[in-house]
Specification:
It is a single chain. This protein is α/β, with parallel strands linked by helices. It is built from 15 helices and 19 strands. Strands 5-4-3-6-7 form a 5-stranded parallel beta sheet. It has a 5-stranded parallel beta sheet with strand order 17-16-15-18-19. β4, α3 and β5 form a beta-alpha-beta unit. α6 runs parallel beside α8.
């Protein structure tokens, strides 16, 4: 599948490994685009295809009090700069007042802009999310953003291919977030480096599009260049009747083409990993990268289990930073904050799961919990379904759409040494706030932890409604 998409987008072959590829969709936001716009201005160039470029405000956009002046002057400047740049170069912008505003990797699929077979780029590492639709979707740097602005192409070295075959049925209470955390714990944060991962198997075939997006989103945390899943009827049903999807007869023609975007039965991958999902448990990270995780039934590992002294060094640092001790049961770790959101887990299915878990309960008095929808459209849909009322009645804060505490670029940050159960994608030191301690979990685990005040096994949860 990857080769089919790659070959159909080659504009120029520089060498056996280096190519110029055509870009079908360029997504931008307020953080990684300003310097790129400055570059094309200095070169007296225009944006070659503004119609294939879409901007949104998400990274440092406030999630509360949007009708008030911004307190963060850097964020204010970035938002104003994006608005001016988009106006000057004729690019569509979903700003804070737009009904289509939201996290860049949430709005493009929900608006029907993410189609199978496309090459999609964005100045954001989690662009791999769009691979769930059978696209080659990659994060790019600011200089590359400028190159795409000017040429609608991207220079790339061709990566290797990797198949991760997931078989079996997921146990009750286990989500695609648990799957990807499990995968990373097994192959490591460099296990897919220099590869594009294609996820296959009957487990993948049963996943909803939103579950597939979560899986592809975090492929980057295993070192992958991108994650991909072949489009099928679940993909086509998701795309049907969306704002920017082909209409009626054009849609039927598109489906015929999209249906060919799958790997041939005899396709050879550079690397193959087979995983049975039957025994996967709810996962919780304990360290400072997504590979440092364990099942909820597990304990903080012993240093001696990591081999040499050199291998133990980052583990020792992580445990010190996280203030955890070896052999400490995961289920006995208390938390201070809960963040449910990010491009990994902020879609309507995620919020429905949270609603079902917290209905009839109250957030633990020791915990501050917040839910940040991935887009204004998701927020509106949740409110139409009454999800917001259930969540707010339980004691959660209900926010406007944005990246929020995923990377702490606005006021949504952890205080020093606060411990957070987060549905985001990275648990690096300081990611959610200076000296903040992040544990990555699924939406179900985050919601249950908010109620209990500590990590708890969602598989034994007693639903009240």
């Amino acid at each position: 599948m990857f080769d089919k998409i790659w070959d159909s987008h080659v504009v120029h072959k520089i060498s056996e490994k280096e190519f110029i590829l055509y870009v079908d969709l360029h997504l931008i936001h307020e953080v990684t685009s300003p310097q790129a716009f400055d570059g094309i201005r200095l070169a007296k160039r225009t944006v070659r295809r503004p119609d294939l470029t879409l901007a949104t405000t998400d990274h440092n956009t406030p999630t509360i009090n949007r009708n008030q002046p911004l307190k963060d002057k850097i964020a204010e400047l970035q938002l104003k700069t994006l608005a001016k740049n988009c106006k000057d170069f004729g690019i569509t912008l979903y700003d804070m007042k737009s009904p289509f505003q939201g996290i860049v990797h949430v709005i493009a699929p929900e608006q029907g802009l993410t189609h199978p077979g496309k090459i999609i780029v964005c100045g954001d590492s989690h662009t791999s999310t769009h691979g769930a639709f059978g696209t080659f979707a990659i994060g790019i740097g600011t200089s590359e953003v400028e190159h795409v602005f000017a040429t609608q192409t991207i220079r790339q070295f061709k990566p290797k291919t990797m198949q991760i075959n997931l078989t079996g049925s997921l146990p009750s209470g286990i989500s695609s977030k648990d799957c990807i955390l499990w995968i990373i714990s097994q192959i490591g944060i460099s296990g897919a480096r220099e590869h594009v991962v294609e996820y296959t198997g009957n487990c993948i075939e049963s996943f909803s599009m939103e579950s597939r997006m979560t899986l592809c989103n975090m492929s980057i945390e295993a070192g992958a260049r991108a994650g991909m899943i072949a489009p099928d009827n679940i993909t086509f049903e998701y795309l049907k009747n969306r704002k920017h999807s082909p209409n009626h007869q054009s849609f039927e023609k598109a489906v015929k083409i999209w249906s060919t975007l799958k790997s041939d039965p005899n396709a050879k991958y550079d690397k193959v990993v087979d995983i049975s999902v039957e025994d996967i448990e709810p996962m919780v990270t304990w360290g400072t990268n997504p590979g440092m995780s364990t099942p909820i039934s597990g304990k903080i590992p012993e240093l001696a289990s990591f081999g040499s002294e050199a291998e133990q060094l980052p583990i020792k640092r992580a445990l010190q930073y996280m203030n955890l001790e070896a052999e400490q049961p995961i289920s006995e770790i208390n938390i201070d904050r809960v963040f449910i959101g990010s491009c990994t887990n902020s879609r309507i299915e995620d919020l429905r799961i949270v609603r079902d878990i917290v209905a009839g309960y109250a957030v633990n008095k020791t915990v501050q919990a917040m839910v940040v929808p991935g887009s204004t459209s998701v927020k509106k849909q949740a409110e139409n379904e009454g999800i917001d009322k259930v969540i707010k009645d339980a004691g959660f804060e209900w926010r406007d759409a944005g990246c929020s505490m995923c990377l702490g670029m606005n006021e949504d940050v952890l205080k020093p040494y606060e411990r957070c159960a987060s549905t985001s994608n990275r648990n690096f030191e300081g990611r959610q706030g200076h000296n903040g301690r992040t544990h990555l979990v699924s939406p179900a685990m985050a919601a249950a932890s908010a109620i209990k005040g500590h990590f708890t096994d969602i598989r034994s949860w007693k639903f009240k409604t």
